[in-house]
Please model this.
Amino acid sequence: MKKPMDVAQLENAFQNNFKTRGELGASVSVWKDGQEIASLAAGWCEREQERKWGVETLVPFYSVTKGLAAATVLVSLERNDLSPEDLIVSVWPDFPQKAATFAELMSHQLGLAALDDVADVFDHDAVIAVIEKQPANWRPKSQHGYHPRTIGFIFEEIVRRITGKTLGQVWRADIADPLGLEAWIGLPEEQFDRVARLYPGRQNKEDLESGFYKELHREGSLVRRSFFSPRGLHSVREMSDSQAWQAGLPAMGGIGTAHALAKFYQAACGALEFFSNEIRQRMETVLVTGNDQILQTRTSFSCGFQLDPLDQFGRKERHHYGLSRRGFGHPGAGGSHAFGDPENGMSFAYVMNQMELSPMPGAKSLEMVKAMYL
Model:
């Protein structure tokens, strides 16, 4: 990227979300070479228009949390002389797959996306007990499929066993506090009054006809089971409750600002000096590519992050994570999105409270991603 970003193009795309796409409240932050070059916020924290949305507004961002959690796992491994190639059973003897590595887990290859037995999302120990006896949903390492909820509990258990602390505590102490990030995995009560209210998206015919949503609505399908286990926190209303904010769920419970997420990815892509070269390589190095058994499309994963798949000629099949092949990040259900582009020293984050349905990035964020490169 040779020329400076045209901030006006980004602002036009941002404002268009409010004009034509029904956005309620939102923030976007873009960084380049260690500096924030765009910070926009507009709208309302609730439909009653009681609180204006600002750059300091906090909002739950669902699976964007997975990127923060993956970084926490990588830091915990490194600081305790462990490698992603080490076996999970080296720290967790009762893990159900004895030959599985941390890297294979983090790249969604182990087939533990759906649980056969019921456990409550707020009962960590019960979920872990179920995971420890769960047969693989597919032959491990032969395929891959996004683990929308279970992977957070596995990350949590690994970090607890390595450090003796919760993943949210390690995230704050080892990453968020040193970088000055207003993003939490387990929100303290004194921050509650800054949180915007979430609103569910509406289904349309195009959504219902997609392969993913057909499987999501088919009773007993692997896709449906993966999004409904463990039990609980299935509605947007529940995610607007303080119990969900405090739970510290590493797969979907993060809360913060767009500024914090974009700054995190500046560090992740090396534009801010923070993570070791080894960790940054783990973030951007593809471990698996192919048809995703859960998302029902082609996906690529590194150690905990998504990347755009490449076709047979090495060209990107889509541009969710910028124009360079090295871009990586993670979207969140409903429309939140964040990524880093190491090649161009750029990072991006978008958070909002009027949700959409897709688990992948949608037009609201992708139009702004496109504008970053104009």
Summary: The first helix runs from residue 7 to 20. The first strand starts at residue 25 and ends at 32. The chain has a mean pLDDT of 96.
